[in-house]
Design brief:
By secondary structure, the chain is mainly alpha-helical. Among the domains are: 80 residues, no CATH class; 39 residues, Arc Repressor Mutant, subunit A; 67 residues, no CATH class; 66 residues, no CATH class. β3 and β4 form a beta hairpin. α12 packs across α13. It is globular, with a radius of gyration of 24 Å. Pfam families: Myb_DNA-bind_6. One of its GO terms (cellular component) is nucleus. InterPro entries: DMTF1_DNA-bind_reg, Homeodomain-like_sf, Myb_dom, SANT/Myb.
């Protein structure tokens, strides 16, 4: 086993030139990569194989387009389809190194980061709640293949991260249900340590800081140190402690007071200012949507078409319905109560709206089917 001094000799620190980085003013983290000949370690470097100062946090629309174009150009050059690249790059020899080449388009992002973001954008992975059948299949595949998530994702058409998180949630070695006080305190301590902040920093203040600076918390590492709580369980507990709905809802979140009443907290503007701004809107210029139209469908359709990333970007007073912002958060809260895949939490607002719309449409179709079988002329007899 190599000693610490021997490992230090293998460390390389060839950093990307920050003076050429368009995000040089952004918060960065330094990855110092040991064993430069390791393919696994190259995964954490940039596409040029350099140890680098990585930009973390959400991808901009410009970055996403750059990756999409780089993938399309690479696939055209190699004469392969985008779907094949996204589906088979983990286990086909002829596709080895493809994402290192693609990642050169964003030299201030790691290969792993570009790969994961690219797959989320281009791979037709299924998202949303898991069916009972899918859960049974997941358990069966783990039993036969082991925890080879890259292989399992291809069989279930669910991302490797989603499969891993769902299995951890089901794993009997993880504790589920109410958090004990000592567990909660341990989680708080680990989060503060991971973010290198004051050991006594208030959770609400910490949540605001993470939200404002778009900091990515290493939930996998925290889950491992917790020992008996899954990554998803830790994340959901964080949401409850901080009052944050999800990263897509920058600008506003809800807290629950001791007496059970909901309190609204605005980031960047107070509730009073929000109400004042709303009162200043010329009511004559706002026409309420027709009563025959489903207001939720109207609201979701508008949000999907606007293609916004976060709630604070939306001009809620411009919608032709009363209290559009509050209605959006009610829809989000209802959706989150039925959502188990935490990879969805980082989606842009418009994509969240699309998922809520899909769920609402499916529920309506199911209701119509139930009503139809009870109509005259349809047989609804069930033999026991």
């Amino acid at each position: 086993m190599a000693t610490a001094s021997q490992q230090d000799e293998d460390i390389t620190e060839t950093f990307y030139d920050a003076s050429q980085d368009p995000y040089e003013d952004s918060e960065v983290t330094t990855d110092v990569i040991p064993n430069k000949n390791s393919n696994e370690n190259n995964w954490h470097k940039n596409g040029f194989g350099q140890g680098l100062k990585t930009r973390t946090g959400k991808y901009t629309k410009e970055e996403t387009e750059i990756i999409k174009n780089a993938v399309k150009e690479y696939c055209t050059m190699k004469q392969i389809s985008v779907s094949r690249l996204c589906s088979e790059c983990d286990h086909k020899a002829d596709l080895k190194g493809s994402w290192m080449e693609i990642a050169k388009c964003l030299p201030y992002r790691s290969v792993q980061s570009v790969y994961r973001h690219g797959l989320r954008q281009l791979h037709p992975f299924k998202r949303g709640a898991w069916s009972d059948r899918e859960v049974e299949q997941l358990i069966g595949f783990v039993a036969t293949l082991g925890k080879k998530w890259a292989h399992i994702q291809a069989k279930l058409n669910r991302s490797a991260d989603s499969c891993r998180d769902k299995y951890r949630e089901l794993d009997s070695s993880y504790v589920r249900g109410r958090w004990q006080e000592e567990e909660t305190e341990q989680l708080k301590r680990l989060i503060r340590e991971s973010l290198n902040v004051d050991p006594k920093m208030d959770m609400l203040a910490l949540g605001k800081m993470v939200e404002a600076e778009q900091i990515t918390i290493a939930w996998s590492a925290i889950s491992k140190r917790m020992g008996k709580r899954s990554r998803l369980s830790c994340f959901k507990k964080w949401q409850k402690m901080t009052g944050l709905f999800s990263p897509c809802d920058v600008g506003r979140f809800k807290l629950r007071s001791d007496d059970g009443r909901a309190k609204e907290v605005a980031s960047g503007r107070s509730k009073q200012n929000s109400a004042q701004a709303k009162s200043e809107v010329d009511e004559s210029s706002v026409s309420i949507v027709d009563e025959t139209v489903d207001v939720d469908v109207y609201l979701l359709t508008e949000l999907i078409s606007m293609d916004y990333s976060k709630a604070s970007d939306v001009s809620w007073d411009e919608f032709r319905i009363d209290d559009a912002e509050n209605r959006w958060y009610e829809l989000v809260e209802e959706w989150q109560s039925n959502m188990t895949d935490d990879s969805l939490l980082a989606l842009p607002l418009s994509e969240i709206a699309q998922l809520i719309m899909d769920r609402k449409t499916s529920a309506q179709r199911a209701a119509e089917t139930v009503e139809a079988v009870d109509l005259p002329g349809f047989s609804s007899t069930v033999q026991l």
